């Protein structure tokens, strides 16, 4: 277990697999961890309810982190959904666009998320932002790339005139390695929590439970999660 970092961390927490792994990662390291979610008119808004369940279940599953888990925040960014004609903000089929990106890409989403997160962190006395962005197993989103996040860290620190660290613990991990990291941090209990309570499916489906969790099993998010789980269990 790493030495405890006295800083306060703010985790961008959607209630999905990746952000739950990041929350566990942060709780293992920082003295105080707060969480932040965003309502941006997402099609899979079931995640907004799941995130609260994950937080409460995490306290039962991993009580060693209870004293470190602080407040939760939810920001209304529905304007982003109003200006984004994407498969995550509209009822339309998921498909590749002419430029090679899937139409699940919401332009500016992570840039706005980090800007608002930094503003909240500044007010809350936090100096570390933790996000689940990854450019190993991902859909090619440019705002998930390492260079983008490094540039945002510099811009936020300059704009706030105070150091603001952007941590992306999953950046170079495959989905199988993310499952492995979660198991390392919280054992079988955390894996079961992720399978049962987190939400990743772009279509917002919670009905069927697969070996890897709930979801349609067909959208890009479900396919990545399922493939990563199968590779980890091999």
What would your notes on this structure say?
This protein is of the alpha/beta class and 234 residues long. The protein has a single domain (5-233), classed as HUPs (Rossmann fold). The chain is 44% helix and 15% strand. The chain has helices at residues 17-29, 46-61, 78-82, 109-124, 146-160, 175-197, 220-233, and strands at 5-12, 30-39, 69-76, 128-130, 165-167, 209-210, 213-214. A five-stranded parallel sheet has the order 3-2-1-4-5, with helices on both faces. The protein has a two-stranded antiparallel ribbon with strand order 6-7. Strand 1, helix 1 and strand 2 form a beta-alpha-beta unit. Helix 1 (17-29) packs across helix 6 (175-197) and helix 2 crosses helix 6. It is globular. It starts with a strand and ends with a helix. The relative contact order is 0.16. The model has no long low-confidence stretch (mean pLDDT 90).
Give a topology summary.
Blueprint: E1 5-12, H1 17-29, E2 30-39, H2 46-61, E3 69-76, H3 78-82, H4 109-124, E4 128-130, H5 146-160, E5 165-167, H6 175-197, E6 209-210, E7 213-214, H7 220-233
Parallel strand pairs: 1-2, 1-4, 2-3, 4-5
Antiparallel strand pairs: 6-7
Helix pairs in contact: 1-6, 2-6, 6-7
């Amino acid at each position: 277990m790493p030495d405890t970092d006295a800083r306060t961390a703010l985790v961008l927490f959607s209630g999905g697999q990746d952000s739950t792994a990041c929350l566990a990662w942060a709780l293992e390291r920082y003295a105080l961890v707060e969480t932040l979610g965003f309502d941006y008119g997402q099609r899979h808004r079931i995640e907004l309810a799941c995130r609260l369940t994950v937080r409460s279940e995490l306290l039962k599953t991993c009580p060693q982190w209870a004293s470190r888990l602080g407040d939760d925040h939810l920001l209304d960014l529905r304007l982003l959904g109003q200006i984004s004609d994407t498969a995550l903000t509209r009822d339309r089929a998921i498909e590749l666009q002419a430029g090679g990106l899937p139409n699940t890409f919401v332009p500016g989403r992570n840039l706005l998320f980090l800007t608002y997160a930094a503003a909240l962190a500044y007010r809350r006395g936090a100096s570390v932002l933790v996000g689940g962005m990854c450019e190993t197993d991902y859909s090619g989103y440019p705002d998930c790339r390492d260079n983008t996040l490094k540039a945002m860290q510099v811009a936020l620190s300059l704009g706030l005139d105070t150091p603001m660290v952007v941590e992306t613990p999953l950046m170079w991990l495959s989905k199988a390695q993310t499952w492995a990291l979660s198991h390392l941090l919280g054992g079988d209990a955390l894996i079961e929590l992720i399978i049962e309570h987190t939400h990743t499916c772009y279509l917002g489906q919670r009905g069927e439970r697969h070996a890897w969790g709930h979801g349609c099993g067909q959208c890009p998010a479900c396919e990545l999660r399922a493939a990563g789980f199968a590779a980890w269990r091999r």
